[in-house]
Design a protein that fits this description.
This is Shwachman-Bodian-Diamond syndrome protein. Helix content is 40%, strand content 24%.
């Protein structure tokens, strides 16, 4: 059930300031990609430049920033791009959910470096509670797992099982794919074939194999090849 509270979402772009008034629970569900109707999210379709004073955004400002004078369409763009103010309970719940996802990832992809045994979720959770690492509820696990692992290595002998992949993409996609993959793992080797295709050998946590394949396919529209060369610990 929706809360009865309302919050103001603020958004700045191209020197203009905009505000919309939303239901905080439905706005959060919308932000998280759930199929929520805008009618439930928006308290009013109006986009303001100052909601407290009831000052509507001008059509000139809307057109310049959003490419439309339709307040409802502009409000949807704001929702997708602005930061939603969270209640303390919402933030706590989101962080706990993300923490569970991170623990699950670690338990599936990491081992005890001394015993080579799997790490039980309970041990990982206890260690997480004893290290100084910020968990971002809106970032994916893949985007913050490296920071979490660095923190955990201070209190437990943790090691990630790694996969070595060979990625081949056309010359038109080479630099973009290389930059993206460098953020996901370690590039071991780089070369070009006779056709100018870029061939990369990449080392990533074993659990990121599907993520790498999906990312490469997305960036190249399926015009790529990813081979698994091996998995090691």
């Amino acid at each position: 059930m929706s809360s009865k509270r309302v919050v103001t979402v603020k958004y700045d772009a191209k020197g203009e300031h905009f505000e919309i008034i939303v239901d905080p629970e439905y706005a959060l569900e919308f932000k998280l990609g759930k199929p929520i109707s805008l009618d439930k999210v928006l308290i009013t379709d109006t986009v303001f430049r100052d909601s407290k004073r009831g000052l509507r955004a001008s059509e000139i400002a809307l057109k310049r920033v959003f490419g439309t004078t339709d307040h409802r369409k502009a409000a949807e763009i704001i929702l997708r791009n602005a930061e939603i103010p969270l209640t303390s309970e919402q933030r706590r719940r989101l962080i706990e959910d993300k923490k569970k996802q991170i623990i699950d990832w670690i338990s599936r992809n990491c081992i005890d470096a001394r015993t080579k045994a799997p790490l039980p979720p309970q041990r990982i959770e206890l260690a997480l509670n004893n290290v100084d690492v910020a968990i971002d509820p809106f970032k994916g696990v893949d985007e913050q797992i490296n920071d979490v692992l660095k923190a955990l290595q201070k209190v437990i002998p943790i090691k990630v099982a790694v996969a070595t992949l060979e990625v081949t993409v056309g010359p038109e996609h080479g630099q973009r794919v290389k930059s993206a993959l460098a953020r996901m793992g370690r590039i071991l080797k780089e070369q070009y074939d006779e056709s100018g295709n870029l061939i990369l050998q990449l080392e990533v946590p074993a659990g990121l194999q599907d993520t790498v394949i999906g990312k490469v396919n997305e960036m190249t529209h399926g015009e790529s090849e990813v081979k698994l060369l091996g998995v090691s610990t």
